[in-house]
């Protein structure tokens, strides 16, 4: 590790590693990159504890396009991230997403979102009750007004695999990755000048990238800045099913999708089991080190919704559970990617609110373009820049789980 870097990235999970990769892989960048990660095990990283899914079913064009790039990048991942003989396969499972609308308001959102998705070229379809019942005969559809299904370009994949792939390739291309913690960030007027590490080292920095997930606000405050991101707890449950409906679908070779019930409960296959979760009834900010699962959510929220939706989900048993953190953007639940308007060499890549894995490739590319070119060269992500935080101008996305 040197004492001066062109770019210092605070946080080495999927976002930080993606930024490092896209910088080092670009022939127009000839600088040095340091990634600082406080936990080398990544055991409590949002990346490691997520459901690791990707979808194009959003209501805003920029989010659709972000996921379209992410999907293609995941498909090409083994070749793109090859280091020596290692070609990291993310084991992408193309199960798709299935949104169910049970109210007129939910139906309207699906119809409006579908128009956006189709305009972007997403492979989504709307189904009425009969079409839904034919595709997934295990479902009780009596209360469903409309369904939206992703026929391709959606599914789930290896969460730690994508993070490790980015990190290993970035290191192979010359990035330095250190196990340490940024405890202070120095500024000279409107310019960040250095970071101080817990080990005592001071690193001169040309640009600092905030990729510290749920701890984004702590990192920003070190530089005298602010971002409305806080840790929100999400508990995931893996359950066994006595009479599994997997294989009963009449589409996609019998495979079941990730289903989002009108109640907000979601469920998808996970090997021979199923993975499920729900938005908590109460959703306060939690301590950065609070990873105790909310065990009661399964009995109180998830099981009743699933048992109502499918007879096969009446007899289910939890076999594992864990809690992870959303880096929750309290302004509008959407990513914040861009420079601070005054402190121009401080770059945000935060607030993904549960979408970090699927949006990581596009976010990493976007940050690298800002640093290398001073602007976007591929997908214009100025809509999700930091300016909207200053102006208190939410960037609304209706399809948030």
From TrEMBL:
SUPFAM superfamilies: FAD/NAD(P)-binding domain. The chain crosses the membrane at residues 7-24. Its EC number is 1.-.-.-. It comes from the Bacteria. It is an enzyme of class 1 (oxidoreductase). Keywords: Membrane, Oxidoreductase, Transmembrane, Transmembrane helix. GO terms for molecular function: oxidoreductase activity. Residues 6-370 form the FAD dependent oxidoreductase domain. InterPro entries: FAD-dep_OxRdtase, FAD/NAD-bd_sf. PANTHER family: FAD-DEPENDENT OXIDOREDUCTASE DOMAIN-CONTAINING PROTEIN 1, SARCOSINE DEHYDROGENASE-RELATED. This is NAD(P)/FAD-dependent oxidoreductase.
